[in-house]
Amino acid sequence: MTRKPWPLPFWIAHRGAGKLAPENTLAAFRLGAQYGYRAFECDVKLSSDGLPFLLHDAILERTSNGQGVAGEQRWRELSLLDAGSWHGRSHAGEPLASLEAAARFCIANRFALNIELKATPGQELLTGQVLGREVLRLWAGSGLAPLFSSFDPLSLQGARQSAPEVPRGLLLDSLRSGWLDEALGLGCQAVITNFRLMDRTTLETIHAAGLRALVYTVNDPAAAQTLIAAGVDGIITDAVDRFSPA
Asked: Which residue from 55, 157, 186, 232 puts its CA 20 to 30 A from 117's CA?
């Protein structure tokens, strides 16, 4: 089965540079780039006034000096937070990154981006719809295309509604009943599983359906070599200092 063009190289830096810099910040992207990475994964949600920005958790406490549910706060307030000091003094004052800032960085450097739709609970469809429109606006004329991914089918459906031409990948942390039909029904081009789930049978099933098979979050060299030998199409890793993307 012929597969559509694919926007990502094989190696993808998780949340920018994994654990070596404050996750989901431009500092993490810059550090990942210093290690030779040309593709980055990040988590994106909406502020209360509808601006997409990078953050994994629903709440702010773990990775910033803010408090409360991030999606209930306006970007004006969120943009003033320190998202770097928790990781170390050298990153003090690093701000939360807007999707627009991440897009400018990636387009200027010809980097690829995997945008995980990480909606505030209750905003899954809206997040996908807004992100679809924003990606079409921000990447217009660049010749690049990011990848949308999500564990939540409703978020992917929203992205499909507003930006059907932007590729999508279904994230899985378990092989629930009907997972392949779900991915196909959402018009996905990839299935991205926890690396422990990706055995040869699962890989062959994904490939037979004409989809790409990617894995997260692989930090062990032996596991990486096993997956590469099996024929996976991409690896998301924290260990940007351990794996050369060349």
From this structure: 232
Residue 245 maps to a domain: no
Tell me if residue 91 is catalytic. Answer: no
**111-132: pLDDT as tens digits:** 999 999 999 999 999 999 999 9
Whether 207 is catalytic: no
Model confidence, pTM: 0.97
**pLDDT digits 0-9 by tens, 53-99:** 999 999 999 999 999 999 999 999 999 999 999 999 999 999 999 99
Tokens of 94: 């690093």
Q: Which domain holds residue 118?
A: 11-237
Residue 74's CATH number: 3.20.20.190
Amino acid type, 126: L
Give the DSSP letter string of 97-117. Answer: PBHHHHHHHHHHHT-EEEEEE
Name the token pair of 14.
């998780």
Domain membership of residue 26 (yes or no) is yes
Q: What domain count does the chain have?
A: 1
Distances (CA, A) of 157 to 9, 124, 170, 191: 25, 9, 11, 15
In a domain, 242, yes or no: no
The span from the CA of 89 to the CA of 6, in Å, is 38
Separation in Å, CA 34 to CA 30, 38, 120? 6, 10, 32
Options 56, 87, 91, 207, the catalytic residue: 56
Rounded Cα gap, residues 16 and 131, in angstroms: 19
